[in-house]
User: Which sequence fits this backbone?
């Protein structure tokens, strides 16, 4: 048996990604283990790989400058100190204020807060979602699509906590008739939460608007399997039956009790439900 086969120690975990506001330590011996007593200059730092962090200097107004440095993890923790309170003020608080303004339909104010956060952290997920929703609310479709592309291209690992953001942005895209983009977002949210009946219902609505009746029934079936008492799904199925939209899949037809003789053929133009 090889050494690798007989190894019983813990599996090495991937290093935690670093992102936040740091201050530079000054007037301190690099070999000292004592807490730094003097700090200056603020920097925004983020991981670019497992052991490398890039830092961008902020000016006196907390705006990013062109000055950047690259550090290894051990250098970062020796030469810089994390400033969580400043990070909260410059990033988290601005996003929270942006969310508040957006929900109050104060789009201009929300846009400013999200953009201020993105000036420092251009990959801030919540700020990007919020700004995209503001653009869609303001009927600025092309700017909303631009935010969509940026989010799709992100390498970030999305978590369950982001599910509602995907869902909300998907609804905004669907209302702007950007059905393919909406379904991409719903799909990402579905991977995070495959047991969400309302998400399945939203996907069915988007597929219906896109004209894909087979996929509409597929996600209505999923929604009803998760929650057999989902009223909106039942109403949607009743509407499809009434207008003669018959599922091609016999299993789905049987699930909803749909027979070819009991329904009319589809009308030339379908009425929009939502």
Assistant:
């Amino acid at each position: 048996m090889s050494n690798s086969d007989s190894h019983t120690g813990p599996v090495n975990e991937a290093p935690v990604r670093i992102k936040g506001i740091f201050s530079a330590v000054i007037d301190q011996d690099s070999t000292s283990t004592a807490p730094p007593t003097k700090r200056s200059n603020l920097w925004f730092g983020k991981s670019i790989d497992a052991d490398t962090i890039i830092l961008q200097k902020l000016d006196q107004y907390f705006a990013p400058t062109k000055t950047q440095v690259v550090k290894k993890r051990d250098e970062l923790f020796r030469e810089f100190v994390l400033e969580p309170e400043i990070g909260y003020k410059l990033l988290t608080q601005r996003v929270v204020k942006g969310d508040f303004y957006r929900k109050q339909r104060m789009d201009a104010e929300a846009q400013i807060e999200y953009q201020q956060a993105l000036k420092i952290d251009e990959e801030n997920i919540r700020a990007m979602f919020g700004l995209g929703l503001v653009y869609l609310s303001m009927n600025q479709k092309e700017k909303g699509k631009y935010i969509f592309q940026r989010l799709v291209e992100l390498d970030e690992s999305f978590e369950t906590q982001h599910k509602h953001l995907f869902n909300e942005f998907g609804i905004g895209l669907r209302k702007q008739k950007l059905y393919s983009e909406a379904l991409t977002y719903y799909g990402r949210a579905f991977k995070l939460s495959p047991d969400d009946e309302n998400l399945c219902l939203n996907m069915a609505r988007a597929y219906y608007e896109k004209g894909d009746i087979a996929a509409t029934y597929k996600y209505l079936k999923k929604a009803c399997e998760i929650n057999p008492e989902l009223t909106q799904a039942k109403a949607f199925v009743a509407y499809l039956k009434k207008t003669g939209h018959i599922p091609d899949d016999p299993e789905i037809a049987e699930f909803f009790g749909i027979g070819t003789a009991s329904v009319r053929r589809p009308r030339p133009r379908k009425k929009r439900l939502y």
